[in-house]
Amino acid sequence: MSARASALLDALDEQQREVATHFSTPVIVLAGAGTGKTRAMTHRIAYGIATEVFPPNQVLALTFTAKAAGEMRSRLRTLGVPAVQARTFHSAALRQLRFFWDRFAEGDFPRIIENKAGILGSVLQSLGIESSRELNRDVASEIEFAAATLLGVEDYAVKAASRDLPGQLGVDDMVRIFEAYSEAKTRGRLMDFDDVLLVLDGVLAEYPAISAEIREQYRHFVVDEFQDVSPLQYDLLSRWLGPRDNLCVVGDPAQTIYSFAGADSSLLGSLGASLPTSTTIQLVHNYRSSKAIVATANNLLRHTSRTALTLRTDNPEGRAPAMVEYPTDEAEAAGVVKSIAAEVRAGRRPRNIAVLFRTNGQSPAYEQALATAGIPYVLRGGERFFARKEVKEAVLMLKAARATSSGRPLPEVVAEVLISLGYSTSPPAAGASRQKWESLKALVDLAETHQAGTELPVPLETFLADLADRAEHQFAPDIEGVTLASFHAAKGLEWDSVHLVGLSEGLLPISYAQTPRAISEERRLFYVALTRAGKELSLSWSLSRHESKQRPRKASRFLTELGRVEESIGQAPRAATSVPMNRCRSCGKVLVSQIDRALSRCASCPADVDLKILDRLRRWRARVGLEQGLPPYLVLTDTSLSAIAEIRPRDMTTLAKVPGLGATKLERYGSGLLSLLAD
Fold it and tell me: Which of the four pLDDT bands, split at 50, 70 and 90, describes residue 551?
């Protein structure tokens, strides 16, 4: 073994080393959060090249986000194998489709649509359907789901009957939209990213010569985040592989969070049966988080599945996660930012702090609070870094400076060029000028990273090539600011300090997650968010959106699954409390849906409805409806009446738990219902 190959293995633990050195059979890696899976994958590739198991140009490493692919390419460059292709499924497919286009199609390559919303807005209007930003987005998600799961229009129509469709649309509406959207793309010679995978998959099936050429080029595959593979991506991967099995996949079923988009974690579970000679390796040693955070994550993990991995770590114990309750959303944002300000004063860099939330709609309150406090922030999912005006100008100026930059350290050259755009060693106080400065500072920091580890000046040309690669794959450099991101957008990232906010019922789990399967996905999403934290973790929620008399929110049911954590209310600590899990009074199962929890029983367990009370309630509803000129079902539904007759509430608090009795109906009918029940 060469000294270089030996050095690659010295950087790995026993399980990671097994991943890096096992080439005799396909490898299935089950890797828990923070267990160094990217290190294991990149060292496997580098070790395979160093020991001449495969040449670098025959490897294709696949992942799901531009950030992850960029990180993988960066690590491979550091390991001395820059020629390896590391791409997202869509990027790899698009590259191949462009290359072979003239071999199977006529005319210019279609224009790629990055966002379906604009075209879908026109499509909906042409069909007489009122469009909106939210509806366009949700319809786009349905189209993506159908493509990812290989459903044609007819198959989708059957499947859609059991799905929650966007807005008030029916199955027939969705079918019409599918067909009209397809026609609009054909007329405009357009192709979306779903089409890229679908078309290439079809080409490889129909053109054996093209398939053979690609299989000759790529002989060894590494696939990250395999639990998020869709049937379409799996089919395409199978065509890339052909009869060979030179495959290493890495995944964790407990981190499956894209089922709504067509991801199918069962493909990971069944892969061993498809590849009977495969070897399964588990990575469970967490290098990211403190023992307290790992223990908290493990407590939640036990509720995800019976086969979930149990993490372990040798990191310090650390501080137990804090649980904080606030009276309002505004108070929560102010309290969280106050804590962040204290962390920054204590020396923690803002880029090492994150605020994570379930929905993007929760972001503005934290953007405002951070701006008011003068703390820089970065919104993931916002404007792309390389699309910013100051970044475009910076790249142009750096290109112009190529002829005069030789012989000097790269950071010095970059900083000098960017001074004319507003860069300085000291940042502006706040506002737009501060955000512009942060973009320029990120470029200087990236130049320092390139220069680190070598005494010879790094050529500006090399730096510009890296910027071009990053721009192509949207792999932005780190910016000095607190990260604001949704739980989904935080996947694959990590910070020293993480604040999980808005952890109340209705937001986590999200209100429309009613089935056991949907609740399980919400729990896995929470697990992903928890495990982004390295040293400190805080969990918070508020009792209401703003000061009002509405029913107070409740803390997320998932918090009861974390074990004992430190708790405080606002800034005033109080003793830790534990909210009991809701279980069926008949069979003892944990209840997940709102209705089941209100009735304290599973839908499949027998009801205990007082028929006399139910009859009186129906007569009361008819009378009230007549007095108010409303049909009876608009007063209260049959479901609500049955629930009241079963629960038989004696006070407003218990009555408020009845499904369908919101704050308005509770105020309007509550007293009358309680009087009727008391009689």
Answer: low
H-helix or E-strand spanning residue 222: strand 220-223
Q: What angle do CA 300, 304, 308 make, to 5 degrees?
A: 95
The average confidence (pLDDT) of the chain is: 85
Is pTM beyond 0.85? Reply is no
Alpha-helical regions (H) of 636-662: 638-647, 652-655
Q: Which residues contact 572 (CB under 8 A, 6 or more apart)?
A: none
Residue 575 has pLDDT above 50, yes or no: no
CB 648 within 8 A of CB 677: yes
Residues 124, 143: Cα–Cα separation, whole Å: 13
Q: What are the Cα distances from residue 115, in Å, to 94, 131, 198?
A: 16, 15, 17
Backbone φ and ψ for 384, nearest 5 degrees, come out as -70, 140
Per-residue pLDDT reduced to its tens digit, 218-240: 999 999 999 999 999 999 999 99
- To the nearest 10°, the Cα dihedral for 595, 601, 603, 606? -130
The neighbour count for residue 279, using CB atoms within 10 Å, is: 16
CB 313 within 8 A of CB 294: yes
3-state secondary structure 266-291: HHHHCHHHHCCCCEEEEECECCCCCH
pLDDT at site 65:
83
Residue 617 gets the label, from left (phi > 0), alpha (psi -120 to 50) or beta, of alpha
User: Can you tell me the distance from the alpha carbon of 594 to that of 660, in angstroms, rounded to the nearest whole number?
Assistant: 10
d(CA 433, CA 427): 9
Q: Distance between CA 402 and CA 344 in Å, rounded?
A: 37
Token couple for 115: 């966002």
Q: What is the mean pLDDT of residues 638-666?
A: 80
- How far apart, in Å, do the first and last CA atoms of the chain sit? 88
Residue with tokens 């790094």: 458
Model confidence pLDDT, tens digit, residues 121-138: 889 889 888 888 778 888
Q: How far apart are CA 43 and CA 45, in angstroms?
A: 5
Q: How far apart are CA 478 and CA 492, in angstroms?
A: 14
Residues 360, 363, 368: CA angle, nearest 5 degrees: 160
